[in-house]
Amino acid sequence: MYVYIDESGDLGFSSKSSRFFIVAYLILDYPFEAAKIMKRLLKKLHERNEYARGCNELKYSNSRDSVRRTVLEKISKCNVKIGFIVLEKAKVKPELKGKTAVLYNFVIVDTIMKNILPKMTPNDKLHIVVDKSLRRISKEAFNHYAINKASWLMTIQWKQTEQIKLSNIEIHHENSQREHCLQAVDFLAGACFHRYEHNNNCYYRIIKDKVEYFNYLWK
Fold it and tell me: How far apart are CA 179 and CA 4, in angstroms?
């Protein structure tokens, strides 16, 4: 299983900060189909002059409305599962507002692990892929936290021995220009952010039928 993770919004708490922080994750057993679709779509958009030729990756923030809709429609037709984590920052406890790294890890890692791990068997392999340009803390610290969280959930909280082996969990920090599935999940994060930050459901409804997991934290 491959899980691609991206985010939208920020974890600041100033008057200029976003009201929401969104984490999207795209779950695929075989990522090659989705990657091929994204790669072909970028080429086609370049040929039609619908996307700047100097941009070598599809990005939600750089795209006009028609491109956003096209990308999301393509994703919705793939064999994928989608997850969203919505953090309304007004509900964050005061003691966490000054601990960005702790909050970042909790929002991303805890919820995703709790949703995915129970569905896995000892022989399964889990590949977690994040955009290396987005990490708030070091690669090593993020990896360490994720593996420790998986271990704690399985052995302490759930007291299970039938879930995935820790040695079968791998975390990859990739360049989104080369990893087309990270480009896909960027659009998912943007669609969900648009829904909450701007109270506009126009993009989210395109992919809502593929949403398998949805967590609104501290509602």
Answer: 10
